[in-house]
């Protein structure tokens, strides 16, 4: 199955079943603002994330042009995920979207401003190359139950995969199977590089924040040790390849069910 046909298939109701998570939709409890260097353009960009009403979802606001992170707006681009609508592009959105999904932020407006004067394209700051900066920002501001304009809360609906989906391009592939919990298995083979690039890693559940042990466990110390020694040092040791790609898998598509979604109503 090609990439385009797989995306169309995933949007079909025959492949997914929408169910209530038994919790209410959330948004952030205040505004988040971060600025930083962008990866591909090398410029500086500012991101402001604002609370949003229930049922609105997550969307980017670039020069008053609203772009939802839907597969309908994904544009082919090397080494990053790019959203494009009506000629306006937002690039390198994968780490931010991963953090919002993993932390349970269902609704928010993401205002992105390029400080280099580009008219039709902007890029989200890269920071350390992971979702860590965004996760910590969400933790600092906190979450709250989102309500619509009438003050009513809404249930959180998530899709469950019914049939397997397989996408391949050249010698790379991604396969998704129905399963009662989230399990991500990832492997990579760069035979010309160090041996650590030829190992695989299995993640039993998506780990949020600073990879707290209570949030899940790695089945391979290749990646876990990278976070323990620090991201900058880990990149120099060769663990970056695994970490970044698992982040892409978690945040680039439509909503997925996380085993331990963070919810602001939890008291435990």
UniProtKB/TrEMBL annotation:
One of its GO terms (cellular component) is membrane. Pfam families: LpxC (PF03331). One of its GO terms (biological process) is lipid A biosynthetic process. GO terms for molecular function: UDP-3-O-acyl-N-acetylglucosamine deacetylase activity. This is Putative UDP-3-O-acyl-N-acetylglucosamine deacetylase 5, mitochondrial. The lineage of its organism: Eukaryota, Viridiplantae, Streptophyta, Embryophyta, Tracheophyta.
